[in-house]
Amino acid sequence: MAGQVDNPFRIGERVSGYSFADRELEVARIREAMLSASSLLVYGPRRMGKSSTIYNAAESARTSRPKPIVVSADVATATNLFDVAGRLLRSLYLETRWLRLRLEDLLGGLAPRVTVKLDEHGGPPSITFGIDRRTASEEERRRAFEAVFERLSQVRESTRRPVAVVLDEFQAVTRFAGESSEWHLRDVMQRHGDLAFVCAGSQESLIHGMIGPDRAFYKMFDLLHLGPIDEQVFADWLEERLARGSGVATGVGMALVRMAGPRTQDVVQVARQLYFRGLAAGRRVEVADVQAAFDEVVRSEAPLLRSIWAELSAQQQDVLRVVALGVQRLYSAEVRDQYGLPGASSVHKAVETLVARGILVREGSAVTFDSPFFRRWVRTEVASDLG
């Protein structure tokens, strides 16, 4: 039981310390941006560890003097600028409690007016703007958003500390009012050049468009692409931690990376299962255990994968079957005839929809599954239907 509690492989949360995989160069780059009022865009595929990397950079930055103030908001789960503004204010409240600034000092005088509801259990307060969310105009939402940055600049001036703003999945801002939201955010960032901005995003096709020559963020950011960790470095990191459980055979780490990679979280998820597996068996884990642990993860996710599969059209399902078999050249007459796929235009439409939903991703001219677990499930459970 103690081994399970001490499992170093953690998923679904920001991790640090012993559970954080090697990202020293990236952490140092983000830390420097936070301390120097720079605008940095950290982008890359999902599940690469962007949130944890930024979190560790913030923790590292807080060891400097003067200690910076780092506020953050997840844009992806917001429905409008009120949400983003409120989250930044809550983050500011939590971040500055050690400065003993009164709530009135942080929020008083903001326009539009904010409403604060204290948590009866001592948690962070609920902070909302005193405007009807349903009837507020886009201009009122933008004024509320701008007011937060005005306050952040005031906090920076009064405390004489660096202030960094982290906007996670920042590309989602376009959902609020299209491209005009991009230009509005750019304008806010330019007017508050005394603040540092670290924006993160995982929808690379959208991000590439947003930083293109005819869009708002052209040459606005320094860029930091967060790709896969070096295979050997990652493999060594994995084996060192597996060795502290029930022991590990040489080669297990590389087998993990090759089977579940390249996304950091996917590899860690299988490593976590492998760690438990070794403890349960009371022996060191071997290379042969990697496939078994991988399949155990697939089985644990099967209910979710089945529900996703059921929502797809028959054409989309057939495309996924073919991709799961490792077949490329989906639009060729030969492949379509062999696997019973529809016309090239219909296959193209299915692929575009699957990419837009994040089920498939592009790798150069090829497409592949975003999730290695979904790929394995399709290959073993339904790909045989194609013969």
Task: Explain how this protein is built.
With 387 residues, the chain is of the alpha/beta class. It is built from 17 helices and 9 strands. It has helices at 2-5, 24-35, 50-61, 81-95, 103-107, 138-159, 174-177, 179-191, 204-210, 231-242, 252-260, 264-281, 287-310, 314-324, 333-339, 344-356, 372-381, and strands at 39-43, 69-74, 114-117, 126-129, 163-168, 196-201, 222-225, 360-363, 366-369. It has a 5-stranded parallel β-sheet with strand order 2-5-6-1-7, sandwiched between helices. The protein has a two-stranded antiparallel sheet with strand order 3-4. Helix 2 (24-35) crosses helix 3 (50-61), helix 13 (287-310) packs across helix 17 and helix 14 (314-324) packs across helix 17 (372-381). The longest helix is centred in the C-terminal third of the chain and has 24 residues, at 287-310. The protein starts with a helix and ends in a 6-residue tail after the last helix. 38% of the residues are buried.
TL;DR?
The chain has 387 residues and is of the alpha/beta class. The protein has helices spanning 2-5, 24-35, 50-61, 81-95, 103-107, 138-159, 174-177, 179-191, 204-210, 231-242, 252-260, 264-281, 287-310, 314-324, 333-339, 344-356, 372-381; strands at 39-43, 69-74, 114-117, 126-129, 163-168, 196-201, 222-225, 360-363, 366-369.
